[in-house]
Design goal:
The protein has 179 residues and is an alpha/beta fold. The protein is built from 5 helices and 7 strands. The strands form 3 sheets. The chain has a 3-stranded parallel beta sheet with strand order 2-1-3. Helix 2 links the parallel strand 1 and strand 2. The longest helix is centred in the first third of the chain and has 15 residues. The radius of gyration is 18 Å and the shape is elongated.
Length: 179
């Protein structure tokens, strides 16, 4: 169903542009939905070449209306701008990324999911608020629901950078499960 909506949107754009441009968040291509959707579109329209551009939520909201992007697949919900259709295609859970030496990341019998409240004493690596406000706000909201305000550490410009900082032992971070 979700892929059908995406394919339909791409097909509509392909009728208007020789090379449809897909706007994706920096971590969008890590989700299996994106390559699967592009593969299905290319099977249906083998003569149409697709271009991808990295864009954050604000640009995904503005650029299709300006004609620069044909279709955008932001990770965070966006209010629909006038003249655009917005469809929720995925609702992906968040998970915690821990340094490999962290006690909760060690091999052995697992207790299951780590309750976020168990991380209240940790330093959280967060997405830079200006560049990734949705992930920044989602982290604060998740911690608030778990009953604490996180100790914020380093800001990272992208999710990949945050994961690198976590691997360096500088803190923990919340990411989409597909990461």
């Amino acid at each position: 169903m979700h892929e059908a909506i995406a394919i339909s949107a791409l097909s509509g754009v392909a009728r208007q542009a020789h090379r449809p441009v897909i706007g994706l968040p920096p971590s969008g291509s890590f989700h299996s939905f994106v390559p699967r959707m592009i593969r299905r579109f290319r099977e249906a329209s083998p003569l149409v070449s697709v271009s991808m551009e990295e864009c954050l939520k604000g640009r995904a909201r503005r650029q299709p209306a300006a004609g620069n992007l044909g279709v955008a697949f932001p990770r965070a919900a966006i209010p629909p701008p006038e003249g655009l259709d917005v469809h929720l295609l995925l609702d992906e859970p968040m998970v915690v990324a821990l340094p490999s030496a962290h006690a909760l990341a060690r091999p052995g019998p697992r207790e299951g999911a780590v309750p976020l409240g168990r991380l209240r004493a940790e330093t959280f690596i967060v997405s830079a608020r200006q560049q990734g406000p949705a992930l920044f706000e989602a982290t604060l909201a998740a911690c608030a629901r778990a009953g604490f305000s996180p100790c914020l550490g380093q800001e990272a410009p992208r999710v990949i950078s945050a994961l690198s900082l976590v691997a360096s032992g500088l803190g923990v971070t919340l990411v989409r499960a597909s990461m």
